[in-house]
Request: fold
Amino acid sequence: VSVITLLTDFGTADGYVGAVKGVLLAAAPRATLVDITHDIPPQDIAAGAFALRTAASFFPEGTVHVAVVDPGVGSARRGIAARAGGHFLVGPDNGIFSYLFEADPGAAVVRLADRTRFRDPVSHTFHGRDVFAPVAAALANGVALEDLGPPIDDPVRLPPLIAEPAPDGTVRSRVVHVDRYGNLVTGIAHADLSTADPAAFVTEVGGRRIRRHLGTYAESGTDEPFTIWGSSGLLEVSVSGGSAARSLAAVRGTAVSLTPVSSSTSGAGPAA
Amino acid sequence: VSVITLLTDFGTADGYVGAVKGVLLAAAPRATLVDITHDIPPQDIAAGAFALRTAASFFPEGTVHVAVVDPGVGSARRGIAARAGGHFLVGPDNGIFSYLFEADPGAAVVRLADRTRFRDPVSHTFHGRDVFAPVAAALANGVALEDLGPPIDDPVRLPPLIAEPAPDGTVRSRVVHVDRYGNLVTGIAHADLSTADPAAFVTEVGGRRIRRHLGTYAESGTDEPFTIWGSSGLLEVSVSGGSAARSLAAVRGTAVSLTPVSSSTSGAGPAA
Amino acid sequence: VSVITLLTDFGTADGYVGAVKGVLLAAAPRATLVDITHDIPPQDIAAGAFALRTAASFFPEGTVHVAVVDPGVGSARRGIAARAGGHFLVGPDNGIFSYLFEADPGAAVVRLADRTRFRDPVSHTFHGRDVFAPVAAALANGVALEDLGPPIDDPVRLPPLIAEPAPDGTVRSRVVHVDRYGNLVTGIAHADLSTADPAAFVTEVGGRRIRRHLGTYAESGTDEPFTIWGSSGLLEVSVSGGSAARSLAAVRGTAVSLTPVSSSTSGAGPAA
Reply:
């Protein structure tokens, strides 16, 4: 039994996802289809890449992840398939798999060149249905990655998600995702910190200081924002029972910094 | 083939549901995964409990229902699994299974105590992925409920959904759910009424009287509100081709009463 | 393995879809369930019919498509099942299958008359669960279409989607769908045009002229609207990286016309 996951910006109202699933099941009738999400904002490649980072690694070995956020459909942008982290990846070469490639330096990538694998004709506007679905079905059916096209070593990459600490220990990052609960996910990973304890740092989000670091939401007791290690290993800013995004007027891209306590005593940002 | 259903307040845009499904399929590759809904309003346990009541009982014997609306994640709140109505239930002990327990007085409940069943490590913010998914997969794979932890007899319960009639025959309830069509579902069940015919009663919703009781939407003919027995055995207030919620400015929690016609002749509420 | 698809206007928040899936899996445990969409606007039969047209034909032979947009539930409107395009169709007789019937003049249709196939009792408000789901499961299990009820030859039909050209070559149509990206899908099909090249025509949408016809989104280079052949074989009006619906203030139903260039030189509409 093969698993094929789908992540798109198609939304769920138009029937486009249904068309893709029809093509998949016609070619790979025994595959288990799983929706990761179809609610990526239209053409927001970075949001799609982040959702893949959240979900993809938990699937069983051999899962085929199809990701279609594809503003360049019909242009010269390449289609690719890859093997990374024990999974197969299929989609446009626009950076959507960046964070999965980051996690597996040994990823193998090919350019989709064997047009006999595609639907015929291929539309100019819907490669999810006409190119990526049939290729994903082929992988689910056991076709070798190498049979899909020639290897490439330069897939498009987004800027790294994870911030590097500066020599003085400060970490400058940004809000990389705002989730449904208003949690602000930052590009600050556990491994970034010279100590794993953010209480040794002062966190600033959009110029406001966060003075508490908690282990669980339940410890909060107030509606003051706090930092917490999130479930994906990234530092998050949260408000218990509320929305940190609203409380702090923060959005994706808002600057976040961590400064070691010893060097931040002269800071003068307003307290959150 | 085991069926595992999912009901959460995760929304569909963040990849969290995908992570849960990945964990489920990695551990129970032959399970059939079914989404009941992920659109429960954030942390709205009562809404989750009601959606479970709407859907859960129709699934085949042995189905595993995973429900994660979990504002207390990471706190001392218990995780539980249960057998009720021929199904297995897995989730936080916060009342989300209340209406399924109401329907089966013989339900067996255990506290999730065997940490070897969980992912390792368990995050403090995402037990849907780290605790409830692996436990649900274990149940789908045939692990016995009793192997998951010690029995408990005091799972958290929400207030009863169904209103009891007063000695004079009046039933005081409330709107327990507003559905997509603006139908107002009340906590008044068929069995509550000394007669099954609401035409023998006067219905008031938020102080406005509903004077018609119909058997089908199609009988309405006007945009006046009416009562109708809904598909879950609860009395509903509807407007044909419109929204009773909007027409009556009613929300979840709005008071509803049924008064026997004989005792209501002196009522003076404005007619709806 | 049988595939059963679902298309409804139930939304995803109420548990209604879950109830339908429970009934399906209880009766057809090995079926593969696929959501086409549950986000059809409430009671919008034409939108449901269009989404089915977008998705249904891609599924494997023998797929059972269940479509429930059913404002007449409980009235005398018929329930039907059909065989069309190598698939089975189950739902209310209100036109929702119109475009699938258009595509297969040999479609066979029966009225659902064998009440032993339904759940007992049948509610007056939820035939998706009580009538259409058990009938769909029966078809997935191999029950013959003819065993479900007597044949009918007059299923309800919506007006044709596809516009016919006038004798002078002009095609008058309308926006038949606005998709998530703001693309305006028209009822103008490839076969409608005396030549397949819309550049030989002047397109007007809501009185504004579209002067460009492109092969791909990527050729646009500006935020000016253009026409393009969409993935369903219908002419679309698009704005690259934006929304044609917003740019042109167009909605479903907005008039669209194509006039051959030779006969349009005296036109005086404002340029788009």
